[in-house]
């Protein structure tokens, strides 16, 4: 059976887009749609499909890479970078603010809000908790139950407060990577399959070469 061309996986788009302020360049409608879709969810392959490019699923990442990196599509890359900068300015978000919020989680300690009593039991005390402590918490639950009094004694209300903090290890990992505290190392061991490593390296090299090479099916598809 004869094989046809790959199906267009992009969602239907009605007509050409209006001229948008994306900056100068030899723009096509698909490139404009790619920029808008990418800015919505930051998923390059998905943006390629939603922009209306006709490609096989495994080629969507390659086209997205080309649009974001190849010199002939510099206007696409510059538009994305400019929109991201504008978005950060509108939200007034800076790298220092993001790191500060991660640090609140990374360096939060239960000792800041828990008091160990003389009998060894723990008691939650949020009276001196500040904004940094509360930022590290993902959930606070307050449960109350009433114990009926006996022989004329008043009812007693027992209150239980439960807290849940964001993942300290995840925050430390994100902070460490940003500060370049970790170095990836390839450790040689008897169980390492050298053949598998070489095969994977050759495969990555082929993918990189295919990405750079402009061929009739994929290179022109990004236009």
What does this structure look like?
Helix content is 43%, strand content 12%. With 223 residues, it is an alpha+beta fold. The strands form 2 sheets. The chain has a two-stranded antiparallel sheet with strand order 1-2. Strands 3-4 form a two-stranded antiparallel ribbon. It starts with 28 loop residues before the first helix and ends in an 11-residue tail after the last helix.
Quick overview of this protein structure:
The chain contains eight helices and four strands; from the N terminus they run αααααββαββαα. With 223 residues, it is of the alpha+beta class.
Brief descriptors of the model:
223 residues, alpha+beta, 4 strands, 43% helix, 12% strand, disordered N terminus
């Amino acid at each position: 059976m004869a094989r046809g061309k790959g199906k267009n996986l992009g969602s239907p788009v009605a007509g050409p887009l209006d001229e948008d302020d994306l900056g100068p360049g030899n723009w096509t409608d698909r490139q404009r749609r790619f920029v808008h879709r990418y800015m919505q969810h930051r998923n390059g392959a998905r943006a390629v499909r939603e922009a209306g490019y006709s490609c096989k699923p495994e080629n969507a990442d390659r086209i997205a890479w080309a649009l974001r990196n190849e010199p002939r599509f510099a206007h696409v890359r510059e538009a994305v970078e400019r929109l991201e900068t504008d978005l950060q300015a509108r939200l007034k978000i800076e790298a220092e603010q993001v790191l500060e919020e991660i640090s609140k989680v990374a360096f939060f300690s239960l000792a800041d809000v828990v008091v160990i009593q003389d009998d060894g039991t723990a008691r939650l005390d949020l009276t001196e908790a500040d904004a940094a402590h509360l930022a590290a918490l993902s959930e606070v639950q307050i449960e109350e139950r009433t114990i009926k009094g006996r022989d004329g004694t008043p009812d007693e209300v027992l209150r239980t407060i439960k807290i849940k903090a964001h993942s300290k290890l995840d925050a430390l990992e994100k902070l460490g990577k940003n500060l370049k505290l970790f170095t990836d190392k390839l450790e040689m061991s008897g169980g390492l399959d050298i053949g598998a490593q070489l095969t994977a390296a050759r495969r990555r090299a082929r993918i990189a070469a295919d990405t750079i090479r402009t061929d009739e099916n994929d290179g022109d598809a990004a236009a």
